[in-house]
Design brief:
Layout lengths: L13 H32 L1 H8 L1 E6 L7 E3 L2 E3 L1 H13 L2 E6 L3 H9 L5 E7 L8 E10 L1 E6 L17 E4 L3 H12 L5 E4 L7 H10 L4 E5 H8 L5 E6 L4 E8 L3 H14 L3 H11 L22 H7 L7 H12 L19 H6 L10 H16 L7 H14 L1 H13 L7 H10 L4 H4 L11 H21 L3
Helix pairs in contact: 3-9, 10-11, 11-18, 13-14, 14-15, 14-18, 15-16, 16-18
Keywords: Cell outer membrane, Lyase, Membrane, Signal
Organism: Bacteroides stercoris
Subcellular location: Cell outer membrane
């Protein structure tokens, strides 16, 4: 075999030749690896672009009164609305996925099932290597919920809890109260409410009604409930502040940056302000006035319209009037916290579906006509139930949306109650729809719901209808 020669004409030993070839191959491999790493980094860097290309932002959250729930067939909740605003700023659609709990939220995010967690996720060291916290950073803490007014002055210091009766659910509220009791040297009368049919929101209502003196809740839940019960005081904190925010995976730095920038701009936007007011400021209790004229036998100025349209649904006109009274206090200009409008408080999508012309949502006749159409459509879903009993299910659906009533019926059947009877049967399970153990049950398809509102809604309307029948001629 002829020996190779160098450019200078000198012969190269075979060993040197092999070494040169190895070096060339090594450089080639390293170059490829470097290109691969660069490509991988580039692929990771386009996390936000991939979302825009897909045209969809997948948001993970939890069912609750402050994050996400379905009301009258529409997606609602403070975190849901912020997620929708963020998605709109990116020019994409929002898709919601609901997890079971905080741990499940994080696991599903890391598994790639969602792009972002839109929930007040506690900022902890445990997840700092896996998550990037972003968006609005809020401070959460636990507060004492107590009444204002009356002879008893609100507590202003935790030491004043000594000798007081505080009713709490098992879990973090109970544990914090036990620790606080130890810090104070004992003396707080702690009552653990283990009945699974009673939720924290039920306890808050009981405080408002004076049935119990104190309970404990997270400040955001407590604040939301002051819009239902304005006689509450939530100023006394009993825990350390906990930082919380949204989160994305570590490999989505551009999405995190976009969430941070959006939050900075969005804090003063009309949309953000409107969402804050809707959930945490606007009072949700409607004041009611007496019958227009008992002497003249008039319930309202719209009696002639109730009499005109009630026969279309085989209702007594006084029952239709009772529904309107509860919904709007006969105020045609009323707009609820959720966006329902007019005499019969129809949600915008429902009004459109029932044929209300644009701009006529507050016209009393259009509102009543559309409401009776909606009632007629709803009644078909309960055709197996006798007419007198069916009215309760229709009223419940009018308030909550039909999906939550179906969930309550499924729960009633599962637990051995009559799913075709409302009073003391299905109504008890609509109450339980605010309890995690029940709204996460496989038979429930519509998640969390503040069932106490629907429970009271049906009872109030039917009780008032009975009063109307006694006082107002048909």
């Amino acid at each position: 075999m002829a020996e190779r020669t160098s450019p200078t004409g000198r012969n190269l030993p075979a060993f040197h030749c092999q070494l040169l070839i190895a070096l060339v191959l090594l450089c080639s491999v390293m170059g490829c690896r470097g290109n691969h790493n660069a490509a991988a980094e580039q692929e990771e860097a386009v996390d936000l672009q991939q979302i825009k290309d897909n045209g969809e932002l997948v948001v993970l959250t939890l069912y609750s009164s402050t994050s996400y729930f379905i009301y009258r067939g529409q997606d609602m909740g403070f975190q849901y609305e912020l997620g929708e605003q963020f998605a709109k700023s990116l020019g994409v659609k929002l898709k919601i996925k609901v997890a079971k709990n905080i741990h499940d939220l994080i696991e599903r995010l890391l598994a790639g099932e969602g792009d972002l967690i839109a929930y007040n996720l506690p900022i902890t060291k445990e997840w700092k290597d896996s998550l990037t916290y972003c968006g609005e950073e809020v401070i959460t803490h636990q507060v004492i919920v107590q009444r204002t007014g009356g002879r008893v002055k609100p507590l202003k210091d935790v030491t004043e809890l000594i000798g007081k009766d505080v009713y709490v659910k098992p879990g973090k509220y109970y544990e914090r109260l036990v620790n606080l009791d130890k810090e104070l040297g004992g003396g707080i009368h702690i009552h653990k409410v283990s009945n699974d049919s009673i939720t924290i929101e039920d306890l808050i209502m009981q405080v408002s009604q004076g049935k119990i003196p104190y309970t404990v809740a997270d400040n955001d839940v407590a604040r939301l409930n002051t819009t239902y019960y304005p006689n509450l005081n939530i100023g006394l904190s009993i825990s350390f502040d906990q930082r919380a925010s949204w989160a994305v995976r570590k490999d989505c730095p551009q999405l995190a940056e976009a969430a941070n920038k959006w939050h900075e701009k969005n804090m003063t936007s009309p949309a953000y302000t409107a969402s804050m007011k809707r959930y945490f400021e606007i009072g949700k209790a409607i004041p009611h006035s007496p019958i227009l004229s008992l002497r003249e036998g008039k319930i309202s100025h719209f009696d002639h319209l109730f009499k005109k349209y009630a026969p279309d649904i085989n209702w007594d006109w006084r029952l239709l009037a009772s529904l309107a009274y509860t919904e709007s206090n006969f105020d045609t200009t009323a707009v609820s916290w959720a966006g329902a409008k007019g005499l019969m408080q129809l949600m915008p999508a429902t009004a459109r579906a029932m044929g209300v012309p644009p701009g006529k949502e507050q016209n009393p006749e259009e509102s009543i006509k559309a409401a009776t159409k909606y009632i007629a459509a709803t009644a078909k879903s309960f055709s197996k139930i006798p007419q007198e009993e069916r009215i309760n299910f229709i009223l419940a659906s009018y308030n909550s949306g039909i999906g939550h009533v179906f969930d309550a019926m499924a729960l009633a059947e599962k637990y051995g109650k009559n799913k075709y009877v409302w009073r003391d049967n299905v109504e008890n399970f609509i109450l339980l729809k605010s309890n995690e153990e029940y709204f996460t049950d496989p038979v429930c398809k519509n998640g969390y719901f503040r069932g106490i509102e629907t429970y009271n809604f049906v009872r109030d309307i039917t009780a008032r209808f009975e009063q109307y029948k006694k006082k107002i001629k048909s």
